[in-house]
Amino acid sequence: VGDKPIWEQTGSSFIQHCYQLFDKDRTQLDAIYIDASCLTSEGQQFHGKAATVEKLSSLPFQKIQYSLTARDYQPMPHSCIISMVVDPIMGFHHMFLLKNTNDAWVCANDAFRLALHNFG
Amino acid sequence: MRDKLIWEQTESSFIQHYYQLFDKDRTQVGTIYIDASCLMWEGQQFQGKTAIVEKLSSLLFQKMKVDEDPITGFHQMSLMFLLKNISEAWVCTNDMFRLALLNFG
């Protein structure tokens, strides 16, 4: 079994860390975002670290079953990594664009959709 | 009703154009990608315009609508495009697709 590519290792540990903070202490998400970050949550846009963390802290659901998700990672120019997380059980799609700034990884762009299934 | 933000306008006309090419003439999908483009399709990686067009051309479903299995379940598709403006044209540099089959059996 070959080693995973570096962008996959970096992306995967970043996302795992991010979801753990989301589950346990959302105030610490402040370290993940920068002032240039954009979040789109269910079609609503939020710009900047403060607005993003405020929105994420206000979301009601508690835990994300990270182990059940499908995760894809790709390298991008200028030391960026793009990731997509799809959870077929809870029905959410989450896209992250990670950027390396001063030797630390931050989330520059974040877009989230919860797909609610209507069977009526 | 507000006007769409410029990036929303670019993105929605790009995607509409993309789906039309996908449905009507997949060989032309090559114009959307560049040699540095990456596609991930159901976890498999394809690098560069040629490999991507070959993969997309080989897909069985005819339109951006999966054949429905009448026995169980519903299909959920997730498609992410990263667009870049190069020499005043929009191209897709990164593309990811996941089909989540939901079984309720």
TrEMBL record, chain A:
Pfam families: NTF2. GO terms for biological process: mRNA transport; protein import into nucleus. It is found in: Cytoplasm; Nucleus; Nucleus inner membrane; Nucleus outer membrane. InterPro entries: NTF2, NTF2-like_dom_sf, NTF2_dom, Nuclear_transport_factor_2_euk. GO terms for cellular component: cytoplasm; nuclear inner membrane; nuclear outer membrane; nuclear pore. The keyword Transferase does not apply. Its main location: cytoplasm. Residues 10-114 form the NTF2 domain. Keywords: Cytoplasm, mRNA transport, Nuclear pore complex, Nucleus, Protein transport, Translocation, Transport. Gene3D superfamilies: 3.10.450.50. Homodimer. Interacts with RAN (GDP-bound form); the interaction is direct and regulates RAN nuclear import. Interacts with the nucleoporins NUP54, NUP58 and NUP62 (via FG repeats); recruits NUTF2 to the nuclear pore complex a step required for NUTF2-mediated GDP-bound RAN nuclear import. Interacts with CAPG; mediates its nuclear import. Mediates the import of GDP-bound RAN from the cytoplasm into the nucleus which is essential for the function of RAN in cargo receptor-mediated nucleocytoplasmic transport. Thereby, plays indirectly a more general role in cargo receptor-mediated nucleocytoplasmic transport. Interacts with GDP-bound RAN in the cytosol, recruits it to the nuclear pore complex via its interaction with nucleoporins and promotes its nuclear import. This is Nuclear transport factor 2. The lineage of its organism: Eukaryota, Metazoa, Chordata, Craniata, Vertebrata.
UniProtKB/TrEMBL annotation, chain B:
GO terms for cellular component: cytoplasm; nucleus. It is found in: Cytoplasm; Nucleus. GO terms for biological process: mRNA transport; nucleocytoplasmic transport; protein transport. Residues 10-67 form the NTF2 domain. Its main location: cytoplasm. Keywords: Cytoplasm, Nucleus, Protein transport, Transport. The keyword Nuclease does not apply. It comes from the Eukaryota. Has a role in nuclear-cytoplasmic transport of proteins and mRNAs. This is NTF2 domain-containing protein. It comes from Mandrillus leucophaeus. The lineage of its organism: Eukaryota, Metazoa, Chordata, Craniata, Vertebrata.
